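Could you join me in thinking about how sequence relates to backbone shape in a protein? Label the sequence line and the structure token line clearly, so we can match residues to local backbone shapes. Once you have written the record down, we can walk along the chain together.
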Amino acid sequence: MDKIQLTQKKYDEMNAKLDQLRTTRRSEISDAIKHAKEFGDLSENAEYSAAKDAQVANEAEIARLEDTLSLVEIIDDSEITTDHVGIGNAIVVLDEDEGEEMQLQVVSSLEADSRQGKISDLSPIGKALVGHTVGERVVAKTPGGDMHLKILSINK
């Protein structure tokens, strides 16, 4: 499997969530199962069934996070360069079709949030921009059609 590049902040957030699922959430579910068992017949016990479903979902999420975290490579902030677009860069691009500037940050797919201007390096726009330098024009092939972008600045 390919490594997943993450910022230290996102890695810490994911580890905190994993810890919460392993400790607090497991304990809550265990208590709910114990409580539901007190109602008697488990075959017709909706509370027991719901608690067991929650347990399965929690364990699946723990396994998913553990698998993901095993593939993580932390991005060293000191190694982020402004020579070309890459993960960790804040960039300003000009959408030449619309005539408007966009401020974006290139992040891993796990950190992407278009509402905050965080685009994945694997997204159509991210793929088009990664590796290019200030002044270069790129074409991003998006589901909505081609976007013509010019890189105006690259920052850390």
